[in-house]
Design a protein that fits this description.
Blueprint: H1 2-28, E1 34-36, E2 49-52, E3 56-57, H2 64-79, E4 83-84, E5 93-109, E6 115-130, E7 135-150, H3 161-164, H4 170-175, H5 178-206
Parallel strand pairs: 2-4, 2-5, 3-5
Antiparallel strand pairs: 1-7, 5-6, 6-7
Helix pairs in contact: 2-5
């Protein structure tokens, strides 16, 4: 019985790390999800401008494709390492992507089987290719980001950094119903995931310069 208990603890620890490890693989380029033309090459020095194509949305979330495209452009403008251009013919490289999923699932319940926490997951494929000649510079498949948010007033931690970075304050938590609170936190989480995606993609590309 003791051995079985230790085995379950070990399995639980491994499962807890799997989402984090999966994100590490997808965004750092370790494993099959990432390819860079020419083993060990740095980012091509002649690529200075990029055209960001509107992302294809295959998730059930209407409008998230436009938000991701807009936030990506803003992030590129902010850092300035690659200049975003409005016309395809002006670009040295083209960045495109497919939003595979944006889903929510219950990850914690109370004794009455009522939801306490949800997990939001964003899954995206990305492709960066040179315009002329047409060749793939970098791509990743199934880049996955997740965030957990509360589903009831009792499970909200108002001192957490996630809560403080959102649009609610402590008085809102007391005033809102659980449904109102969950809807608002869901939107905050969606916004954070989109911004995280843009930052981490930008950082991954900058690491190759």
């Amino acid at each position: 019985m003791k051995a079985e208990g230790e085995r379950r603890k070990t399995v639980g620890k491994i499962q807890n790390w799997l989402p984090v490890f999966g994100l590490f693989l997808a965004l750092t380029g370790v494993g099959c999800g990432y390819q860079l033309s020419g083993a060990g090459e740095a980012f091509p020095k002649d690529v200075r401008t990029v055209f960001i194509e509107p992302f294809v949305n295959r998730s059930r979330d209407v409008g998230i494709d436009g938000e991701i495209t807009a936030v990506l452009k803003s992030e590129f403008h902010r850092l300035g390492r690659l200049r975003v251009v409005d016309g395809l013919e002006q670009a040295d490289a083209i960045l495109s992507g497919v939003i595979r999923a944006f889903d929510h699932r219950v990850v914690a319940v109370n004794r009455k089987d009522e939801a306490l926490q949800y997990e939001a997951t964003l899954v995206v494929d990305m492709n960066l290719r040179r315009r002329t000649p047409d060749e793939v510079l970098w791509r990743t498949r199934g880049a996955r980001l997740t965030e957990v948010y509360s589903a009831s007033r009792g499970s909200v931690v108002t001192t957490s950094s996630e809560f403080k970075s959102g649009t609610l304050n402590s008085s809102d938590v007391r005033r809102f119903t659980d449904i109102q609170l969950t809807e608002t936190l869901s939107l905050d989480t969606r916004e954070r995931l989109v911004e995280r995606f843009a930052r981490e993609l930008q950082q991954r590309l900058l690491d190759m310069f």
